[in-house]
Amino acid sequence: MPANLSNHPLLETRTAGVLLHPTSLPDRHGAIGVGDLGPGARSFVDWMARAGLSRWQMLPIGPVGKGDSPYSGLSSFAIEPMLASVADLVEDGFLPASAARIGRADRAVDDGGRASWRRARKWKRPRLEAAFRAFEDRRGRMGLRGVAYEAFRSRTKDWLDDWCGYASNRKRNRRPNTEIECEPTYHAFLQFILDRQWNRLQVHARERGVHLVGDLPIFCALDSADVESRPDLFRIDRDGVPTVLTGVPPSPDPTEESNSVWGRTAVDHGQLWGHPHYKWKAHRSDDWAWWRSRIRCMLGRFDILRIDHFIGFHNAFEISTTTLDPATGRWRRTPGDELLASIAREIGPLPFIVEDLGDRTPPIDALRERFGLFGMRILQSAFFDNAEAAGELPCNHPPRCVVYPGTHDNNTAAGWYRSVPADTRRRFQDYAGPSAAKDPAEAMTRLAFTSPANIAIVQMQDFLGLGGGDRMNRPGEATGNWCWRMRRSDANSRLARRLADLASASKRLP
């Protein structure tokens, strides 16, 4: 570990939390289609506090890209506009109270357990545009030339103008629904209100002892504002075409029983993710300014960050754009040590959880330990008959890690139990007890909470005991993902009491 760099205090406390993206919050207070940052999010924080949960982990919150995937975000800095709360815009005086009202029929459709980006955009866009027009006409602190807006513009000057230019041009090139979508000031307004609503949620959470955990994808999408505004930082040619692409190699043993690493299936031929790689020399010559700005922005919104695909900070897998075949790819060293050291010099101890699944080789372990970072353990990977399973068993967890029954890429615990072979179920029952067969989600949750790991985080679906049809993502499938949504009755007092009792018994109360 670098000199004078200790572990971050938020990682050292024994705590429990929930994995839930804001879009999965239920329909409350005008949150049509997808959940948002308004009253429903603050109510969820209140429920978490009653349930003894003090860590709320989300997926990336940037503007969604292909397939509405948060991992194909269009910006490393901006926030997805559909997360804006109409109810909060009403409260701030930008919209009349009638704007947040929802008819009974629409409300019934919207509480069906599935998010709908189409429904959200159809309902919310006209209201956001009306709020923008009110903003243009408004004077004083919250108006176009107001103190709050100008302060926001000044604080975000290193990325906001680039995003607004990108977003307005993108809409113009894609036949926008309205002319407003082609105005850079409209996109600045959206980010202004999103920033204001995020700050309100963050303050509300901290007052109740809840800390927000963000998710930082290591790579950027080719069609993102990041690549468009800083092509010099990416390995692309003069025409904007990547020279190599990201992905993962085929499994060394494609016939080996699946262990859920990288969301692999039992027969795996590698994955082509398709992001351009970084031009690391350019980042180094710029003293890592883009990365440091990205981390500062994220830590302004979150208390802890999960770094996706941490192996990329040691070496990255490059796939030729000529073949597009992962089998032809190669590993190449990356200067993650220098990058992390630069960030640590600026902010001190790093509040990072790193996704090191399948990557616990000595060099990766050494890099993680050197900077006091917490790795991950996945319980769904603990009961297979392979070499990696032993390290995932709770009895072998180190305190300095985060344990999950499964992540957004995994099945739910109940779905996992029904899908694995009989001998895997038997090993799970032998470890977790006979009741595990009756309620595998409760058994997985209990194993996570009683693990030696300092932090235990459980998908909301597993707290609810839901089956495989309610999983968030199926890696390798282009459609049908990122759509799970809570029902209004899910986060109830009975569940809160059960979780609070478990948190207390496992010494995970904040």
Overall geometry comes to globular
**SSE succession:** HEHEHHHHHHEHEEHHEEEHEHEEHHHEHH
What's the helical proportion of residues?
25-40%
Kindly estimate the percentage of residues that lie in beta strands according to DSSP: 5-15%
CATH architecture: Alpha-Beta Barrel
Treating each run of at least 4 consecutive H or I residues as one helix, how many helices?
A: 18
Most strands sheet: 8 strands, parallel
**CATH level 4 superfamily:** Glycosidases
Question: What is the topology, as strand order, of the major beta sheet?
Answer: 9-6-3-2-1-12-11-10
Low-confidence stretches: 254-267
Radius of gyration: 22 Å
- What is the CATH class designation? Alpha Beta
Looking at CATH, which topology would you report?
TIM Barrel
Structure, described:
The protein is of the alpha/beta class. Helices cover 36% and strands 11% of the residues. It has 18 helices and 12 strands. The relative contact order is 0.14. Residues 254-267 have low confidence and may be disordered.
Compact summary:
The chain has helices at about 10, 40-50, 85-90, 105-110, 115-135, 145-155, 160-175, 185-205, 225-230, 280-285, 290-300, 335-345, 360-370, 415-420, 420-430, 440-450, 460-465, 495-505, and strands at about 15-20, 55, 210-215, 245-250, 270-275, 305, 315-320, 330-335, 350-355, 375-380, 400-405, 455-460.
